[in-house]
Design goal:
This protein is mainly β and 127 residues long. The protein has helices at residues 50-59, 106-113; strands spanning 6-12, 17-20, 26-35, 41-49, 65-78, 84-97. 14% of the residues lie in helices and 46% in strands. Strand 3 (26-35) and strand 4 form a beta hairpin.
Length: 127
Amino acid sequence: MAMNTCVLMGRLTRDPEKRYTANNTPVASFAIAVDRFKEGTDFFDITAWRETGEFVSKWFSKGDMICIRGRIQNRDWTDKNGNARRSTEIVADEVSFCGGKKDKPDQKEAYERAQLEPIEDDGQLPF
């Protein structure tokens, strides 16, 4: 059995860009900066489809902290010069608020509208 799952927490480096496919499926693209444990920062391109993409494009903006659970995906494409290229991106299956660049009073409302419940830490480990 193979598994492709990742969890990332970082800050958006730009506002999400929402667009629609030919079938009118919403998709949002954005990037996040994730600090390493010791030093340095890694940057990841993120794609969020359907309701997740709608949610991200409505409630997140550049500088906001976000937590993403998703999968790593390679995409092969041809550039304008005919060269074969490969991009690696994260496809977000779930996103969560992790605080923002500033306190946003509307984030609580966003949770309620999306029917998401923030996890409260009771100090008990799940194992």
